[in-house]
């Protein structure tokens, strides 16, 4: 009887152990599945973040810009630079006129030392080595002299002579003849407003290391060489739109275009394609404002392409959504447009086909060469876009970017 009882108890214990083991196994399996799911979700998010970072790096490379971060506070841009941008760009942000001297880059530098009345210092270090200076200007705003402060010689000399010197010894600012004369202007004794001086020789000296940058000295005298005092607007003392600026008109020895090779990625092409699909899904879901800014196609343009033929569609690049609005002054965005549609045989004149595209479409239609596909819908003419922005030293730069807007589309 005792043996029977122990056998029953033993069987019960084995049964309970099996049940408990099965329950624990199911629990462990559920935990493992949950952890695996979380791990896959984490990996997916990390992969998407990596794609976004590489895409922004590529976009930054296209614009030829340094990593400017998220700077938020800037001085008011010089009036000359904003007027220059408005003069060369139309309302859509497309270039309509060339820069002075046909410059591809215009850089402005604010003064860094206003402690002395007629001494001006601009820090131009860190210039792009791929740029050559076409012209350099010192732009000073001459203030109106109140009648009670007019020097007696103002009434006997109708004109004044303003001279600009390259400082060779900052300890000898009281002796202009010890410095290098760069430019001299004859101006009305009672005039006021902007005065512009050519100082290219000094800038080339500084850039090529022939002489150190010790600043500029400005003097004023009558026609009889009597020294007189005139006032110029200075930084932090007058309105920022009238602050002294040094302006460089530069040419680029190379254009900022991305390399032909794709972003280096050790994974397979199929993995990259999956990332692009995932990225498109994120953008469509509104989870990434950055890429909404790069792909904002309007429904009206899509409806205009009901035939499906090659045509130009709207694509608006919004710098605020990309995250660049804190340092881009103008434009806030621009219509880049893109080309989409089929190039079926026969190609019509509205599709702007080249002779090569026409022949290719015929070869494809007749299946004369199995590997030859249809012509592609691509931009046939492109427009330039100017960009006005702050660099990493808070100086304002106007740069011309070539081939940024699809002006027309066709089959090629």
Overall description:
- By secondary structure, the protein is of the alpha+beta class.
- It folds into two domains: 174 residues, no CATH class; 124 residues, Cystine-knot cytokines (Cystine Knot Cytokines, subunit B, Ribbon).
- It is 30% helix and 26% strand.
- It contains eight helices and 15 strands.
- The strands form three sheets. Strands 1, 2, 3, 4, 5, 6, 7, 8, 11, 14 and 15 form an eleven-stranded antiparallel beta sheet that branches.
- A hairpin with a 5-residue loop joins strand 14 and strand 15.
- It is elongated and about 115 Å long.
- The protein starts with a helix and ends with a strand.
- About 12% of the residues have low confidence.
Largest sheet: 11 strands, antiparallel
Anisotropy-based shape: elongated
Distance between the termini: 98 Å
Write the element-wise H/E pattern from the N-terminal end onward. Answer: HHEEEEEEHEEHHHEEHEEEHEE
As a percent range, the share of helical residues equals: 25-40%
| Structure annotation, total helices | 8
- The Rg value, from CA coordinates, equals 34 Å
The amount of beta strand, in percent, is 25-35%
Number of domains: 2
Q: Note poorly predicted spans.
A: 257-304
Structural class comes to alpha+beta
Q: What is the total tally of β strands?
A: 15
- Mean pLDDT figure: 77
